[in-house]
Amino acid sequence: MIKASVIISIYNKIDFLELVLAGFEKQSFKDFEIILADDGSSLNSCHKIEKISNNISLHLTHIWQEDRGFRKNKILNRAIISAQSEILIFVDGDCIPHPEFVKEHIENLKVKGCNTGRRVNLSEKFSLLLTPEKIKRGFIESNFLLLIKDGLLGNSFDVEKGLYFHNKFIRDLFNKKKRGLLGCNFSIHKNDLLEINGFDERYEAPSIGEDSDIQYRLELNDIRINSLNNIAIQYHLFHKLQERPQKNLDLFASVKLANTIFTPFGIRQTSKNN
């Protein structure tokens, strides 16, 4: 059995996806599959994904659902069901992984634990410099001083989160602080997600449903969130921010009020409907 299943949530933006997949081609650890959790990309985008999958060294599966608005959590639940590994790593389709990303998530995942890394937010200028070929040559890591300069000029930000530490003492020092789960950068054992019935599909807008809600219910179930700051690193490609609607906050408030680990609106519901 393969060691890990990397689940990448996507919706069109195939130019971004090519950069992200280039980052996964460059991983030091190779024993993983890629599942593209596609929330309704266009037919044209699907044709492009098929062409990419035929010309890439990765084991790639494309799972698609009809575009009926933001239903990211539903397609993520379908991806969980399809995953061949017991270790799941969640990534967004606009986040390029550091070459040690998969290795670090796997090596640091403990029993009853959930890892969460962090990301550098790239400027539009720096994002436009990137090509799949450059990423596979290690352009970002070998030009980190250029990224620092871009950060000092006020374009890229959270650049310090791109410093990769090898030393255990420094790693422990930078991860004393508790950090919240990032939906675009976390790993967990499949069974621990199944126990809470996966993602709550009532969240039909960005934010909270992919991370805060999941963290809340995992911690209710005694899963410890482990910070991999400066260890499991991503580079987030520039794009305009999506709106964060009030309805997600209201739904999350009701979830906390109910104080329930298991959502009735998750994986088991998805299994029945497919």
Summary tags:
274 residues; alpha/beta; Spore Coat Polysaccharide Biosynthesis Protein SpsA, Chain A; 7-stranded mixed β-sheet; 3-stranded mixed β-sheet; 13 helices; 39% helix; globular
Map the helices and strands.
Elements: E1 4-10, H1 14-25, E2 32-38, H2 43-53, E3 59-64, H3 72-82, E4 87-92, E5 95-97, H4 101-107, E6 113-116, E7 118-121, H5 124-128, H6 132-136, H7 139-142, H8 144-152, H9 168-174, E8 185-189, H10 190-195, H11 212-220, E9 224-227, E10 233-236, H12 246-258, H13 267-273
Parallel strand pairs: 1-2, 1-4, 2-3, 6-9, 7-10
Antiparallel strand pairs: 4-8, 5-10, 6-8
Structure description:
The protein is globular. It has one domain: Spore Coat Polysaccharide Biosynthesis Protein SpsA, Chain A (Alpha-Beta Complex). With 274 residues, it is an alpha/beta fold. The two termini are 25 Å apart. The chain has helices at 14-25, 43-53, 72-82, 101-107, 124-128, 132-136, 139-142, 144-152, 168-174, 190-195, 212-220, 246-258, 267-273, and strands at 4-10, 32-38, 59-64, 87-92, 95-97, 113-116, 118-121, 185-189, 224-227, 233-236.
Summarize the structure.
The protein has 274 residues and is of the alpha/beta class.
Shape: globular
Average residue-wise pLDDT: 96
Any idea how many domains?
A: 1
Helix content estimate = 25-40%
Number of strands: 10
Beta-strand proportion: 15-25%
